[in-house]
């Protein structure tokens, strides 16, 4: 029955069956409502649903890039159930699902949940894309080897990713002295917003290999743009400069997949979920076209 | 792909495809996120989604009635789009949809949205069920003939329903003098909570004909049970007494359909949406069995 | 211009000029947005406006008592500005204003703000009504002689009132051992909700003299009825039993004035302000008629 | 009685009778708490009251423009009651009221409520001011000819305005492909924030005729400035650049009236209402002087 | 320096050094801010701090039982850090800490956090107290053997406890059919609120052995008393009846320890934390005296 | 017992006993939860606790300045109890406590609470440091001689400070005409954000004497950075420019003490408390080193 007296079902971008069907869609959105190891304020478990709800308010034409990304087809999967046995098992679950989707020819967009779950999709991509590099947006270094008794704590995310792919990070403004020393010793490119502005987006793009996986911890943004994160830090990135950098990377490189994580919707206004939805939609448009 | 690593899709009671499929389901849940004529506090537009979200937290076995109502099959339709031309047109839209579902043999559960939309399903049932009576839960008389320049304002709901079916109301504690006089002149049974307790549930059931449509404005409940309504009134009904009355009516009569309206989720704790979800589920179990 | 295309101005009960005019009105509502000495959670400063806003959602006919209290005329004054020099000076200001209103023949309803400001209207009434007694609703004894370096702290309210009038209190469930001993030594009637239920409303009415001033700290209610107070205590009074007691006192005695205090609206749902508004309106109806 | 022991009555800028009296005031503030056709998040109904409440916290001297706008006299009308029959009837009501005020020689400031109501005051001004042009601030094109079954849906606002006056818009970052094509085909000046920064305020002013009506949908601002709107979009206008543009337009042209709409206060911090209040006050100062 | 110009440090009941010192205190409060396996709404991680903050607003004399429990000395430990490796490891950590405290002669009060952590203190008590029985307050059966891939999920709490002690439960109104069958087959005493009222508190006490550990999942209460839980269920227990039952058990038996869990403070008003604080304080008074 | 299974006690920066001990610490944090004279929105009483809670989420290494300020030792005192007799008495209490701490050789950081309490620490420093100048961040002039019947109202803060030390202010965008004239007549340096950007930080530093006390009313920041203040004003200072100015002042002058005031946490997202915590920590690092 659902005809034009109805809104579409609630899925990413509120697409109807034509554009939301799995078989036809080039893009798959995978919601992962997982929040088990965070140590700051709580609530990233509700992030995926908030982003999907907000995405229903977007126009399907993105006037900022002149594209209609939904034309590529976007299927929204149901939410991944948390594995509450251990964060390691949860990361493995997400990795296996993403791997199956990649093997099925899909472009995968993972919506967190806490940043730790990004290890799964990043590893699934890396194991299928030789030479993959990772571009990370984050306020925190996330380079601890272990935290609160687990190597899969969200504070260890980029340390885990570094084990299988090189990482370039933008947005850094919180780190332990040990993490800071690790960055120096390894010669990693982890840029604070001030350093990023001084260097310019081209310099960041130059660090990346041809195939790029993008992992976005929304606390990379300034809290004026996204307050709804568990560990907000002043002095962050602005919407326009993130948009510009992503457009440049999409132009120079091939973005093979990405995640958007750490939205804790109750910690900020709904405008924050709206930004996350538009960021996701734009990145689909930049990476996949229309 | 969605296997047991996933939660089910978000629909009423979080059912998987076996029990949520339209063709197989005896019950259809129709969400109507409409909030255009309310005059108190705002937000019933978000009611249906909040009830559906909360329903995912319920156990599917209702220990209070010893049944698993989902076994009858419950399909959740997408949300009805608002007709913003006029409330009259919106009521007509809901009536036509419910009528089509009834003609398709379904038991229809309408989730509001403001109470005015209940006129649609009530009329659709009345026109198909000769001798239908209506049992209403409400804090307000809703008997104005016209309000804020519309006869389909939510303050006119039961006046409109009275045009095609007799109404018995429980929960009354707010009315204009004109409404109060109207009740007396017409000899209507509109009972305050104190009067209801004095009379007992059997007396209410005795007012009803064999086939009963139930319309629930959640402000019939005491604000301690449901604060998340636009016009809360102290001195309302309690969960246990509403449950007992509904169980009795289901036993003595045939409940042919019902609606649950006026949840404005941001005005109270999530526990209010949870009550609305459980009320909906229990009423399905009482009316349809399992 | 304001004709029927407009809502009335925001005043208590949203009355138009006919019933809200000062000269014609028998009743005057005095908002006192004062919150300076409270020691629990904060926000009673916003109480008067929240009650007045909620009062605009009420029907003007109170079906519970079968009266239209607004017919007596209710004028709403602008808010009293806080005297931030000292709580003593603020109490004196409120007392002087209430005294002038009484001398002008008005029935005065004071809306707090913290409970301490009740000392002003209570004293203004006592000095003009020989033999006045005070009926207090409160969770706390409020019998400290001094608290946080001030004898006019809100924790001292009833101790101050006792200096000029006898007090009967209902709702007690929080007191220091010293306050508890003071109650015993003085033989005061301060009843917990359980004691009140055992004694019955007639026993409370029997404690009062012919002329009664009523002071209501909303935390006398159970938090299920009013959570929006700075010092909520479980195990409090219910709407129906407070209503019944007030109706009885109005029948047996003469209520000469009253206050409703301690609503901190951000600490609970809007339904709490609605209860406070309806309580105020009903008490006007009980005391003044229509 | 209200003397200096009281705050002024709650009206715009908390003015006392001298400056708030209708007859004496050059400026009239018209609150329109209407929210019936919005499709994003809900709550613009509460916008006017929130702006008026916040305006009581402003200093009456605007240090940013060196003026005391209240000296022109500002009268605040009660809220316009919604016509719940249809949005078309509501627009007509607002138009007729504004027309009467203009005919009475007043400068009219309309506070929404949803943006659709701006059609009323804009048309009232246009029909009395030959050659009027409209300057709009908005994130959305608002150029649909019809939406959700109504040509007066808030998504059609500027399309309706274009029927009687030329429109220059600033802030655009959300549009359908059809709206985007319409802008191109008609050669309209609808500027994104990035385009506006490139062009500069003089270029905008050059588009306007001598007499200008300003319509402000607050979502034109960046969500970091105003998150409390139903359809927030990242990448918007900043306070300083809007202020600068308005000052320039006031200097070069004659601003004959304006509206401020779409504040949904519960969706963001109170600071958003404060911005809306100050924007309103400043625009009065720029347009009317002191 | 901290003299009487200061409030005491923030600890349970806001005690000064005399009564809060570890060595002198008979009672130790152990906060466990753990929230990793919950499947409903989120936020029990913030429970312990909210209870401790609220406890600072209590009077130290509990007028309801006529005692000053703080005189026994109450030491508040810092918060237990979560073990994010697995819930099993976390339960083991809490058990070891509680065991050490018991071996040091303390009466231990554990504040959750999610209910799963109660397995730790219950086991620590059981292994030191032969014949211990457990009295549980809960809305849910918590009898799953495994949930979301972990036997230590919070939905398995009482199933784990049953492995080392008999359990009597009060408050049941949510269970799977399997859990319901398990209760019947094992002949467990799990009482719904209606069954509890029919049976009376003496019948519950009669189920218990001489030494009793009490575990309180706050969702056992009706949501009108405590809405701030992840899985609220209508039809729950009231403050007065829980208080009465606990007083009776304390009189008939020996309460050797207890926990209060599942407060998710952001999901309800602060009054809910206040109830949890007073419940904790009263239970100390009932179990330990003064 | 507290070993590494525990989080540290809640104090500023969540330090363990080694770095938090009073005797060893060079820095003392003094929380003053006072909110009695404010006239805008309410809640600065909860500011100190919110800042301290947020500070537990910071990394102890401040990557922005390359220092670990906690190594200097930071002791957190319990909260100063409010003197509710008068604001004058409260200011005197804070002054005496700060004076005693200074005489004990400590660097004192005062956390408000409303801005009025800054008069106490500023005077304590001025009376011990000849030639001290004060650097203020504020949206408001705070130069009234008296407000709401008290010279110690928070709107008079800088007027009181001027009686004992010269003041340079940055952030001004709200003032009465009288305050504006006072600034001109006295030739004070009170800079709006636009004026500050034009002048540059060196010009501000040049106004200061060798020894500087810094008083921060958080409303000096733009509401996009800190919305959680009682009187937010658009057009304020940004994090990066405040950080840069403070770093320059620390380099050119000697910062002898400071306060951070007016955080009303419930009025904005938790990110605002996080900014206040990091600002406090960085200023300790700039002033004291590590």
Helix residue percentage of chain A: 25-40%
What is the strand content of chain A?
Answer: 5-15%
C-alpha-based Rg of chain A, rounded: 18 Å
| Structural class computed from helices and strand pairing of chain A | alpha/beta
Strand order of the largest sheet of chain A: 2-1-3-8-7-4-5-6
Mean pLDDT of chain A: 95
Largest interface: A-D, 23 and 27 residues
Q: Indicate the low-confidence ranges of chain A by residue numbers.
A: none
Intertermini distance of chain A: 29 Å
The counted number of beta strands of chain A is 8
Chain oligomer state: homohexamer
Determine the number of helices of chain A (DSSP H or I, runs of at least 4 residues). Answer: 10
Largest β sheet strand count, sense and barrel closure of chain A:
8 strands, parallel
Query: Which overall shape of chain A is indicated by the principal axes computed on the Cα atoms?
Result: globular
The SSE string of chain A, one letter per element, is: HEHEHEHEHEHEHHEHEH
Give a structural overview:
The structure is a homohexamer of 290-residue chains. With 290 residues, the first copy, chain A, is of the alpha/beta class. The first copy, chain A, is 34% helix and 14% strand. Chain A is built from ten helices and eight strands. Chain A is globular, with a radius of gyration of 18 Å. The relative contact order of chain A is 0.18. The model of chain A has no long low-confidence stretch (mean pLDDT 95). Chains in contact: A-B, A-D, A-E, A-F, B-C, B-D, B-E, C-D, C-E, C-F, D-F, E-F. The interface between A and B is medium-sized, with 22 and 22 residues.
């Amino acid at each position: 029955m659902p005809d034009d007296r109805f809104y579409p079902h609630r899925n990413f971008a509120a697409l109807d069956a034509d554009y939301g069907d799995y078989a036809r869609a080039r893009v798959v959105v995978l919601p992962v409502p997982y929040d088990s190891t965070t140590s700051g304020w709580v609530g990233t478990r509700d992030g995926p649903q908030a982003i999907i709800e907000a995405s229903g308010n977007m126009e399907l034409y993105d006037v900022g890039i002149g594209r209609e990304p939904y034309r590529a087809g976007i299927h929204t999967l149901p939410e991944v159930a948390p594995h509450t046995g251990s964060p390691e098992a949860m990361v493995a679950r997400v990795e296996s699902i993403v791997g199956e989707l990649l093997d099925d020819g899909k472009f995968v967009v993972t919506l967190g949940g806490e940043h730790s779950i990004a290890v799964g999709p990043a590893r699934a991509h890396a194991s299928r894309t030789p030479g993959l590099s990772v571009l990370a947006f984050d306020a925190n270094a996330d380079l601890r080897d272990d935290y609160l008794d687990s190597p899969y704590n969200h504070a260890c995310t980029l340390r885990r990713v570094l084990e299988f792919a090189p990482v370039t990070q933008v947005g850094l403004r919180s780190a332990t002295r040990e993490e800071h020393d690790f960055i120096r010793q390894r010669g990693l490119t982890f840029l604070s917003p001030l350093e990023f502005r001084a260097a310019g987006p081209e310099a960041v793009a130059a660090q990346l290999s041809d195939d790029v996986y993008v992992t976005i911890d929304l606390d990379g943004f300034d809290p004026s743009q996204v307050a709804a994160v568990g560990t907000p830090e002043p002095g962050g990135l602005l919407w326009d400069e993130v948009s510009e950098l992503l457009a440049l990377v999409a132009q120079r490189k091939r973005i093979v997949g990405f995640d958007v994580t750490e939205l804790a919707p109750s910690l900020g206004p709904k405008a924050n979920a709206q930004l996350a939805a538009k960021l996701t939609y734009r990145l689909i448009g930049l990476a996949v076209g229309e």
